[in-house]
Amino acid sequence: MAQQGTAAGTRAGAGHAPVPRAKVLSRELSVFYGEKQALFDIALDINANQVTSLIGPSGCGKSTFLRCINRMNDVIDTCRVTGSIRLDGHEVYDPMVDVVSLRRRVGMVFQKPNPFPKSIFENVAYGPKIHGLTKGRGELEELVVSSLVRAGLFEEVKDRLQEPGTSLSGGQQQRLCIARAIAVGPEVILMDEPCSALDPIATARIEELIDELRQTYTIVVVTHSMQQAARISQRTAFFHLGVLVEAGDTSKIFTNPEDGRTQDYITGRFG
Amino acid sequence: MNSGDSAAHAGGAPAEESKILRRRHRADRRFRLYGLSAVAIALLALVGLLGGIGWNGISAFHHHQLLLDVELDRAVLGLPAAPDVDESALRTANYTAAIRERLRELHPEVSGRKQKRSLYALVSSIAGFELQRLVLADPGLLETSVSLALPLSDEAGRYLKGDISRDSEESRRKLKDDQLDWLDAWAAQGLIERRFHTRFFTGGDSREPEVAGLGGALLGSLWTLLVTLALSFPIGVAAAVHLEEFAPRGRVTDFLEVNINNLAAVPSIVYGLLGLAVFLNFMALPRSAPVVGGLVLALMTMPTIIIAARAALRAVPPSIREAALGVGASPPQVVAHHVLPLALPGILTGTIIGMARALGETAPLLMIGMVAFIADPPTGPLAPSTVLPVQIYLWAESPERAFQELTFGAILVLVGFLLLMNAIAIVLRNRSEQSW
Ligand SMILES: Nc1ncnc2c1ncn2[C@@H]1O[C@H](COP(=O)(O)OP(=O)(O)O)[C@@H](O)[C@H]1O
Ligand SMILES: [Mg+2]
Asked: Which residues does residue A191 pair with via DSSP β-bridges, in sequence order?
């Protein structure tokens, strides 16, 4: 019953914006780890060219939901997904879907910056190489540079593209990971607590970057910080114990939540 | 409240407290002392062992040769006077006679069969073959005088190295006083030269210690290890990759894992018996051949490599896999492009340690006949051969005293290789730790 209510609320929330289009759409999505159910009948719309943040106490299933969108959960043997999650209307968990091309369309940035132990250049070039996106060295170099530019990292690393990616600072590494995700030309970028391992200045840079990237990509960010959700996202979804409690415009969630649990969480009464 | 507390401490309890403190410090010191003495004992044992081997074995790396100008007179050699001599005649000519003739010239005072025999006995019985080899290579040497560096007999060599003392009772040594006199005279005339013993490293085994070499065993070990490596490395790594990266966790995988660990603990001689039964009796592969040795040692080494490779693969952080999957790499690409390169130093470390163990392994090779006396260095993996540790075993069993020095020399070589391999393994391991 509660899920039905949220779904209705989602649609109501979507009414404000100039016809936002649902890029990702989940219905009755449940996820199990072995016997344990981690998500219960999630119905959530994620609009194109918006930043949607997922908030909630830890262990409530935010990462699990995020990892359904690009099927990163596939690598966990015990993980089982039921229900529906669609990208542009196509079922993500359809057995016909090619996971490799799905992940090309849905990029991911992780909590801890995880550049490959290779050069900065190779980090960004790897995705385009395996997908065969460029012809010749020149085109590849162009793509690497433009990706680094978009990730706001190029100016800082342009003289040392051959140095290892792991030699950068934490914030730079995270922007390198964003550049790496951008380089394969995704439509959706998933970020799982991308700033939780960074200092406030690096965090501010990433937040700015997320706001810029919204023009081109659909972005879903998991965050622990409510201030961050408020600063960067247009829509917010609040998860609690595997249930999507409430989703809607960020301003509404933070000023006038419908559910008591949301109210309690944003006022810091738990979590 | 607080200040009162500390005052009480300062006033009432310092004696008590410092006693506890002192006792604890003493315990700390004792504890450190135990550790240090254990390390010292281990070091002492190691130094003692290596030092002992080195002391006894290092002398095997050089030897003494007798410098002689020998006349290649046709009559002495027993060849016809005709200018053209066919090869078979050259092969069977009496080269020893030429050397003996020269020795008699050096010592005209020697008379009587018995005394002459003692004189000839100072030169190695294979010296004639050296001369034969020269002449066969260049028949033009006939009727000329050639300068030779001839091997001395094993006992003469031991005397020149100081292993035999003139002061010992004559009846209790093989070399008699007159022989020692001749050797001393040669040394005084500058006819004895001390050289690096190249043949020890390149020559094949021999019944004569003065010319026995490790070359055959080294080559045999090389062929054997090549076969071992060529089989156990790819199969071991592929098995580890499958088990670690692709096999679904479950009963079958658990069963395999337990049994791989069991295999790693099986005594090596059991692998030898298996090799005897399967490779020699059933598959009828040649005895004493490096291929069979390599097959047996590969079976023995594979579990070690699988275990080491799995540990190395597991040590690659999951974040790297996620990063690669996240940009759309397929699981085989993740393994080939990221996981394997990062795990490689660890895998190589395990492999080298496995190879070092295989290099030192004797028991399973005895079972498949690699213990035979083989004079010619093997020409390939199918030729009969022996290996370093088995050569050591063979020499250690030989009655001639001079083989003892060779045994220690061979142990030095073996230990040298093992240390080198372990050093490479350590360097690789350190490098792999730096990479992330
Ligand atoms: N690989 C896994 N295996 C089993 N349980 C898991 C696994 N990953 C997450 N879970 C469980 O699923 C629930 C949701 O986890 P997660 O999505 O990581 O939460 P969040 O990201 O909101 O902190 C938690 O109870 C967690 O213990
Ligand atoms: Mg999480």
From this structure: A109, A221
Q: Which among B320, B327, B337 is the nearest to A181, CB-wise?
A: B327
Q: Which residues lie near ion ligand 2 (Cβ < 5 Å)?
A: A 63
Cα B373 to Cα B134, B211, B219: the distances in Å are 26, 15, 15
* Full set of structural domains in chain A with CATH: 21-266 (3.40.50.300)
B→A interface, C-beta within 8 Å = 248-249, 317, 319-331, 333, 337-338, 342, 435-436
Q: Would you call A181 and B326 a contact, using CB atoms and an 8 Å cutoff?
A: yes
Verify whether ligand 1 is closer than 6 Å to residue A260 (CB atom). no
CA distance B240 to B373: 39
Q: CA A43, CA A244: separation in Å to the nearest integer?
A: 8
User: Which of B253, B316, B325, B327 should one mutate to test binding to chain A, selecting the residue with the greatest count of A CBs within 10 A?
Assistant: B327
Regarding the beta carbon of A64 and ligand 1, being less than 6 Å apart is answered yes
Question: Residue B411's Cα: distance from chain center in Å?
Answer: 6
What kind of fold does domain B215-432 have according to CATH?
MetI-like fold (1.10.3720)
Can you give chain A as a three-state secondary structure string?
CHHHHHHHHHHHHHCCCCCCCEEEEEEEEEEEECCEEEEEEEEEEEECCCEEEEECCCCCCHHHHHHHHCCHHHHCCCEEEEEEEEECCEECCCCCCCHHHHHHHEEEECCCCCCCCCEHHHHHHHHHHHHCCCCHHHHHHHHHHHHHHHCCCHHHHCCCCCCEHHHCCHHHHHHHHHHHHHHCCCCEEEEECCCCCCCHHHHHHHHHHHHHHCCCCEEEEECCCHHHHHHHCCEEEEEECCEEEEEEEHHHHHHCCCCHHHHHHHCCCCC
Q: Which residues of A touch B (CB under 8 A)?
A: 70, 72, 75, 77, 100-104, 107-110, 112, 114-117, 126-127, 130-131, 166, 177, 180-181, 183-184
Backbone phi and psi for residue B347, each to the nearest 5 degrees, phi listed first: -65, -45
Q: Which of A33, A42, A80, A191 to mutate to test the pocket of ligand 1 (most atoms within 8 A of CB)?
A: A33
Interface test mutation site (partner B, options A63, A75, A111, A118, max chain B beta carbons within 10 A): A75
- Give me the tens of pLDDT residue by residue for chain A, a chain 271 residues long: 333 434 434 444 444 445 678 899 999 999 999 999 999 999 999 999 999 999 999 999 999 999 999 999 988 889 999 999 999 999 999 999 999 999 999 999 999 999 999 999 999 999 999 999 989 899 999 999 999 999 999 999 999 999 999 999 999 999 999 999 999 999 999 999 999 888 999 899 999 999 999 999 999 999 988 899 999 999 999 999 999 999 999 999 999 999 989 998 888 876 5
- Residue of chain A with shortest Cα separation from B323: A114
**DSSP, res B162:** T
Domain extents in chain B: 2-58, 62-200, 215-432
- Please, is B335 exposed, middle or buried when counting C-beta atoms within 10 Å of its C-beta (0-12, 13-18, 19+)? buried
Using the structure block, give the residue that is written with the tokens 């004079």. Answer: B375
- Cα distances from A174 to residues A89, A144, A207, B83, B149, in angstroms, run 31, 16, 12, 89, 73
How remote is the CA of residue A266 from the centroid of ligand 2, in Å? 18
Ligand 1 centroid – CA A192 distance (Å): 13
Least distant ligand from the CA of A64 = 1
- DSSP sequence for B24-52: HHHHHHHHHHHHHHHHHHHHHHHHHHHHH
Name the minimum distance, in Å, from the CA of B263 to any CA of chain A. 28
